[in-house]
Amino acid sequence: MSKTFEYSLQVRWSDSDRLGHVNNTRFVEYLQEARAHFITELLTETVGSRGTTVVRRLAVDFLRPLFDDSGPLSIEVTISSIGTTSFGVRHLVRDAEGALCAEAEALMVMFDLSSQSSRPITDLERAAFTEYLLDVPATST
């Protein structure tokens, strides 16, 4: 069974729009925050360095609205695929009641700052990602 990284955050007062619900752009910020903590903690602990990654693609399905009192939110992060230079990150956003509010899939690319291009995933990085690799293929988003 694969591991799941769980990240908790509170809905901030400034996250709500004029309609009284959390704006969709804030959902994307929540995803980024959870994903950044996941990658940083995982790679720093296992490889000794976070490395550099860039987002190639991001798809989000907004399933339920979030409101000021929806938190704390839980964002579950797993790895959905591992390629040569890229890996898929699956996010599930749940409200304080456990209701699924959003599903998202990010395609992340390992990046070399000096050459300004993608680079292969190292064996150590691949082993770390594999611990969080979904046992069942993720639903397409």
How would you describe this structure to a colleague?
Strands 1, 2, 3, 4, 5 and 6 form a six-stranded antiparallel β-sheet that branches. Helix content is 22%, strand content 35%. The protein has a single domain (5-131), classed as Roll (Thiol Ester Dehydrase, Chain A), CATH 3.10.129. The protein is elongated and about 45 Å long. The model has no long low-confidence stretch (mean pLDDT 93). By secondary structure, it is of the alpha+beta class.
From the structure above, extract its key features:
141 residues, elongated, alpha+beta, 22% helix, Thiol Ester Dehydrase, Chain A
Uncertain parts: none
- Approximately how much beta-strand content do the residues carry? 25-35%
Alpha-beta content class: alpha+beta
In DSSP terms (H or I, runs of 4 or more residues), the helix count works out at 2
Under the CATH scheme, which architecture would be assigned? Answer: Roll
Number of domains: 1
**Termini separation (Å)?**
22 Å
| Helix content, binned percent | 10-25%
Sheet with most strands: 6 strands, antiparallel
Radius of gyration: 16 Å
CATH homology superfamily name: Hotdog Thioesterase
Protein name: 4-hydroxybenzoyl-CoA thioesterase
GO molecular function: fatty acyl-CoA hydrolase activity
